[in-house]
Amino acid sequence: MPESPEVEALAQFLAHEASGREIRGVDVLEFRAVKTRSAPPAGLVGRTITGAARHGKHVELVLDAGSLVVSLGRHGWMRWLEAGAPEPDAELPPALAAIDLDGGATLQATDAGTWVSLGLHVVGDANEVPAIAKLGPDPADAAFTRADFDSALGRRRKQVKAILQEQESLAGIGNAYSDEILHLARVSPVVHAAALDDAGAQRLFDATVATIRGAIDARRGIPIDRLKADKVASMRVHGRAGETCPVCGDTIRDLAFASTTAQYCPTCQTGGELL
Q1: pLDDT tens for residues 209-260?
Q2: Rounded CA separation 182/153 (Å)
Q3: Residue 177: strand, helix, or coil
Q4: Domain 4-133: which CATH number of 3.20.20.60, 3.20.190.10, 3.40.50.300, 3.40.109.10
Q5: Adjacent-strand bridge partners of 54
Q6: What pLDDT is recorded for position 84?
Q7: What pLDDT is recorded for position 90?
Q8: Which UniProt keywords apply (predicted)?
Q9: What are phi and psi of 205, to 5 degrees?
Q10: How far apart are CA 151 and CA 266, in angstroms?
Q11: Shortest CA distance to 196 belongs to which of 229, 151, 160, 171?
Q12: Percent of the chain with pLDDT over 90
């Protein structure tokens, strides 16, 4: 799942490479991806891209009139093809839409899932996309404070891991970075927000900010086709069940619960208890 560090790097790449280019053609190959049926992507022909921005886990192509917002969903991404580049390997995720730009470059919206999670929204303003309008505060924002974090957590009897991934509470975090945050904060993946004392909440706040902002810095300038691999390589606990914890040397464990999974270190996070 794309999360804020990788989506931020994608938006920065698009702002640099696509700004100033006119859209010459739009080919939608999977019409289920189009979420604004009264404003189809084909109507973007002739408009000029003026920039790009990230909103949580969504990327916005800012146009001289309106915007194209790509909701990346669980398996979506974007692929950049320079003029004259060969067709992508058949083993790569298929393109659901292709945008041809002046100068010969093509921007493809792709989806690697077995069901369509990517969405295309042609809007006058990004906040017209319901999921963006409901986003909570973003830990990557320099203005994000402990008060914002405490408001997001509340005193709810809800697992902190779920709250970290709840886009209406905190924007941009998914399953992978929530595992990394909880490990750094030394917090169990099943603890409820209501059970955190002030020291635990402070550790979790510090870990959230450090993890997300550190990952954004680390991904900056990485080619967009390598961002997923770089993300995977950077993980300390997520996706590493059975491996050694880099902090204490214990074995990282896997936990499946509700509709998600978590990887955690018993010594660092649960007082040695196996969940």
Answers
A1: 999 999 999 999 999 999 999 999 999 999 999 999 999 999 999 999 777 8
A2: 14
A3: helix
A4: 3.20.190.10
A5: 59
A6: 86
A7: 78
A8: DNA damage, DNA repair, DNA-binding, Glycosidase, Hydrolase, Lyase, Metal-binding, Multifunctional enzyme, Zinc, Zinc-finger
A9: -60, -50
A10: 28
A11: 160
A12: 93
Q: How far, in Å, CA of 47 to CA of 137, rounded? A: 31
pLDDT digits (tens, 9 = 90+) for 58-106: 999 999 999 999 999 999 999 999 998 888 887 889 999 999 999 999 9
In the predicted model, what is the mean pLDDT of the chain?
96
Contact 111, 96 (CB under 8 A): yes
DSSP classification of residue 85: P
pLDDT of residue 204 exceeding 90, the answer is: yes
CATH of 146-269, one of 1.10.8.50, 3.30.450.20, 3.90.1150.10, 2.40.50.140: 1.10.8.50
What is the length of the chain? 275
- 96, 110 contact by CB (below 8 A): yes
Which segments of the chain are extended strands (E)? 23-28, 49-55, 58-63, 67-71, 76-81, 95-101, 106-111, 119-123, 253-257, 260-264
What backbone torsions phi and psi does residue 84 show, to the nearest 5 degrees? 80, 0
How far from 226 is each of 47, 112, 166, 222, 229, CA to CA, in Å? 29, 15, 27, 7, 5
Q: Scanning the structure block, which residue is given the tokens 């059975």?
A: 242
Q: What is the pTM of this model?
A: 0.95
For residue 222, the cross-strand partners are: none
Residue 29 burial (CB count, 10 A) = 12
Token digits for 60? 């916005």
Using the 8-state DSSP alphabet, how is residue 235 labeled? -
What is the average pLDDT across 21-27? 98
Give the model's pLDDT for residue 132: 98
pLDDT of residue 260: 82
Q: How many CB atoms lie within 10 A of CB 37?
A: 8
